[in-house]
Input
Amino acid sequence: MSTITRNIGLSLGADLCWPAAYEELIQRLDLSLKLGEDTVRFAVERVTVEPFNLRYKPKYDIVLDRLTHWFPVSREWIKKIVLMDGVYVLNNPWSVQSMEKHTSYCAMMRLGLPIPETWMIPAKEYDEAAWDTGVTVRRYNKLFQLDKVGDAVGYPCYLKPYDGGGWVGVRRVKNARELLTAYDQSGQRVHHLQQGVEGFDLFIRGIGIGPQVNIVHYDPDAPLHGRYMVDFHFMTGEEWAHASKITRIVNSFFGWDFNSCEMLRRDGTFYPIDYANACPDSQVTSLHFHFPELVKSLLRWSLFCAATKRVRAVNLNWQPYFDIADRTDLTLEQKIDAYDELAKAYFDSDAFSAFCKEHLTELDRVAYDFFGTPRFKAIVKDKVTALYPPHEVERFTDHFFGLVQFWRKTEADRLGVEFK
Output
């Protein structure tokens, strides 16, 4: 019998609060797991950026990555350690780099989900000095009437970057004049024009980590700190299960361990409008009440992957999904159930549940205690200080910490312990 340490790397940018909370929970759990004939322990450290030999051997068993989508050096390091060394990484770096919102729309249309009418629009402007852009545009870009595209999509609609994120560059237009104005201001980015889901009565985000999904009521018109709402009973159990399946299906299809999906409900039907958020908001200043569940879910999934030496699938296998999509004897709901079975198999859902039940029974109570400590309040203050002007730091530290205490009250009720 030997003692083995699984090394967890955190590849971070501006993140402050969730890594600090994650590290604290690992330390407080002080896990020593009996797996077969071995005892498995865990160590966590933050990854630094430096030159690396492509043949060097990294010490990490798993890396939680927050940089691949925008920081090239870290992205290429991630690719190397996955491809050459078998390190498990959240998320698949090739999928994050190549599977933008456009691909997610096309894929989910292929699976039969009710994506709103969507067109791709060529860029308004071009850098003609780049490559052969000038000659290509002059020879092959066909003139088009944007107002006719708008009529085909229907108003109101949204002009939004095909590969965007964080609501950057998204414009709601109600008529042809507004569409032309928005397009004239869109610069060199390629855009989608997507039909609005008018009359919706619910906007949700499904936050998926491995097979785990948390559905949150979302208000995109609120200030950033108020968009993730503290709300209960806003969906039926059947609707919750449906939204959870959609989130899990999207994530397994693209090989994303960590992603959020946006859906709108109208007349009882959920319309997916944004699938590709494979580096979702993870800050206490946004998630507040929901922040502890995100950290706990990250911790459960990463410990499972590290402890069991889960193997990262570097290539994606879409054919089984397409085989289901092409069946004419199944309703859409039956297809969704079949897709979800593929998703649960992809994420080893049964083995994950068994692992948590056997080895992580103390996590809920440890997390409940930690999120009420002065140490956690200091973590909240550090994040608030990084974002807010000095005169608002104390106020918003108390605000976000207070919302987490409300979560602790609901958690105390769930666990059957006295709230302190």
Summary: The longest helix spans residues 393-415.
